[in-house]
Design brief:
327 residues, alpha+beta, Nucleoside Triphosphate Pyrophosphohydrolase, 6 helices, 18 strands, globular
Amino acid sequence: MLSIPASRPNAYTGSPLDRVSGRRDEADFVAAQLAREDALFVPVWRSQSLLRDNPAGEPEAVLLTPATAEALRMTAGPAPAPPGLAPHGPAPWVLLGLFEEGPLKGRPVFAVDCSAAEDPLPLLSPEMGRFADLRPVAALMPPGEASLLAHARGMLHWRSRHRFCGVCGGVCEPRAAGNTLRCTNCGTMHFPRTDPAVIMLILRGDRCLLANSPRFPDTTMYSTLAGFVEPGESLEEAVRREVLEEAGIRVGEVHYHSSQPWPFPASVMIGFHGEALSDAITIDPDEIRDARWFTRDELRSIDTLGLRLPRADSIARRLIEDWLENT
């Protein structure tokens, strides 16, 4: 089995930022970036990104000035609290980094959460766009823009889910320009977590294995198998285990293809092609609704079968398309 190279970058990769991780603890540096009049802010409202259409009708990211971002943040008020607990602190912000090149080189970029606002749009002029789900349009955006929005979404999701210490239950406060959290009670430091998941296109001769999962709302969409890596397990072992558990197929050779950040909410997808050692499929009905082998010709005209492939922003789609192109 030959290794199949990645033909182009995956969606959500190609970050335009220097994350300045070595300077996040420098209070003077962070304060100076926050005070800059040319600072830019990526607003996130309930996991949605601020988007608008450019003159060509393509989606693009909207970055806010400090004044507009602060108006959104303060209007949102304190971060909401679970029932019975008081809200704490203003809506969070996070220093994402500095633009590395181009016309925005050196300008700082922050993520700002305005999720507590019932409707932030009245504070924005109509031409500033709309809050919308990033995933359906990410493949239509320049990779750097989609990466920036995904970075902001992922960090703010983590912040919203880790307001209280997992060790003692104390309130956590931001450190390192919002990129870490410290428990105010026991002092435990908490860091953003990314869960590794393997995703694999399994091959057997001129056919590949695709499946439909009960988790998919669309019963016509067939995708690659995937699953989280377990403790004490290599990536290759995770590929073989997941395929055996979900489809009853043993896998031999496994070749790395590429990876993709997937902050929906907090994963990194690690893509592989693998060689099946048998044809017979035995599905786990709790995980798989249906699985079948597809030839290249069938995939090239999959719409005639009444089926469809994964969305263009997914590494699953890239694994399939790169196999199709490597005939």
